[in-house]
Amino acid sequence: MAVKIRLSRHGKKNFAFFHIVVADSRAPRDGRFIEQIGTYNPNTDPATVVLKADRALAWLNVGAQPTDTARSILSHEGVLLRKHLQIGVAKGAISQEEADRRFNEWKAQRDAKLQSKKDSINAQNAEKAKAAFEAEAKVNQERAEAIAKRKAEEAAAKAAEEAAAKAAEEAEKAAEEEAAKATEESASEGTAEA
């Protein structure tokens, strides 16, 4: 029986995540498996991998063959480096302490790279959010200025209408007073003649 370390697809359409499984090569992709040794979620940035490294190493040591994608995940997680170092220890080329030291140095470098990538992504997201906020504030300020200008124009037009109405009212009042004076004069002339 050929044993493979491979990915088993789960999730939904356009949002897949994968289980990392050890399965018989003849079993269906998402079907029967021997053991689940981790998960892989490519939807996050950077991709999230949760892996039982000791179990993966144990399966590699007994001859399980990883698929190409599973091999890259195992390599990224350091399982293949750990296997390589263990072969060196078994041959007597290096000591166990030296193998552990090399693995820990590699892991520290990988974690530093991963953290710097996360920091740069967070900085880019913060910069984008700041730019979007500034753009929105500028648009809001332009809208407020346009509204204030429109209200000022409306107020000026209303004041002009009121002034015109007041002038017309005063003119009408003046005309009424002149008409009243004229009738008064003609009435006083009429009484004076009589």
From TrEMBL:
Cited SUPFAM superfamilies: Ribosomal protein S16
Composition skew (Basic and acidic residues), residue ranges: 144-184
Listed GO biological process terms: translation
Ranges in a coiled coil: none
Domain of life: Bacteria
UniProt region (Disordered), positions on chain: 144-194
GO MF, any single term: structural constituent of ribosome
InterPro entries: Ribosomal_bS16, Ribosomal_bS16_CS, Ribosomal_bS16_dom_sf
Keyword terms of this UniProt record: Ribonucleoprotein, Ribosomal protein
GO CC annotation: cytoplasm; small ribosomal subunit
Gene3D superfamilies in the record: 3.30.1320.10
Family statement: Belongs to the bacterial ribosomal protein bS16 family.
Record-given protein name: Small ribosomal subunit protein bS16
Species this chain originates from: Candidatus Merdivivens faecigallinarum
